[in-house]
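testing teh design pipeline on a random one, pls ignore if ur not involved
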């Protein structure tokens, strides 16, 4: 019997990225810009794609961290979104929700300064790549503003729709290059540790447009679960026209949330 030989492509080794700048974009969002030769060959057009960040231990040297990426034990990994990449300047921007020391990535970002580093794997392709709808619905809490913003900025300038951002404080509003034909709403939810119905209430109250609708919606899993049911069961949106994803869940760290998603519980 002929033996089938299958070549399995090996994943590229994680990059170790170096911080060029870091600052508070808003009171509850930290922007970190990475730069350097480690970004040689980084793919363009991946704004809105996700990536894995590997967080070094406090006081760990870059040499020791690189060795640990290669040989183990594996560092803590968290999922983030490519906000922008400037190939000419070799600069990669990633935004972090600032929630103090509650999580390893937020803790790292809150202390980030030029010369600091972390591991990077990815990125994936963007979540929405075909802009062929008549109308778009974009909704995000702070965790998903990067994917929502990247999607809006990639759209044709004559695109129409509604964009909804739920943030912690009025000062968390960001400047985003949104097409002029969008109706933009900034909702304030001061305590993200408590459930919110504000996005769903607004979406349910809208005058639903005629024509094909596509979505880019992400955020807390409880909100997403309810919105998904509304869009699929009541608005009858085809699955292929929806990007809708739970990025986190109240009371769970990312590893627990990912397990819940795999088990169908989030």
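output:
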């Amino acid at each position: 019997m002929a033996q089938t030989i299958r070549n399995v492509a090996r994943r590229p080794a994680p990059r170790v990225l170096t911080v060029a700048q870091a600052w508070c974009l808003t009171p509850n969002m930290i922007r970190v810009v990475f730069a350097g030769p480690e970004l040689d060959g980084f793919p363009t057009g991946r704004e809105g794609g996700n990536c894995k960040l590997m967080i070094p231990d406090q006081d760990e040297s870059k040499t020791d961290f690189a060795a640990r990426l290669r040989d183990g034990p594996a560092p803590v990994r968290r999922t983030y979104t490519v906000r922008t990449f400037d190939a000419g300047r070799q600069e990669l921007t990633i935004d972090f929700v600032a929630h103090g020391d509650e999580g390893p990535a937020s803790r790292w970002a809150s202390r980030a300064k030029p010369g600091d580093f972390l591991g990077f794997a990815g990125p994936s392709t963007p979540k929405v790549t075909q802009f062929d709808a008549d109308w778009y619905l974009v909704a995000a809490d702070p965790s998903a503003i990067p994917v929502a913003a990247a999607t809006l900025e990639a759209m044709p300038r004559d695109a129409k729709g509604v964009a909804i951002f739920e943030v912690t404080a009025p000062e968390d509003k960001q400047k985003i290059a949104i097409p002029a034909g969008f109706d933009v709403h900034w909702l304030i939810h001061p305590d993200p540790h408590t459930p919110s119905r504000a996005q769903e209430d607004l979406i349910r109250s809208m005058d639903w447009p005629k024509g094909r609708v596509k979505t880019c919606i992400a955020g807390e899993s409880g909100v997403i679960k309810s919105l998904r049911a509304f869009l699929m069961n009541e608005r009858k949106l085809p699955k292929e026209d929806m990007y809708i994803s739970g990025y986190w869940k109240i009371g769970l760290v990312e590893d627990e949330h990912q397990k819940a998603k795999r088990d169908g519980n989030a």
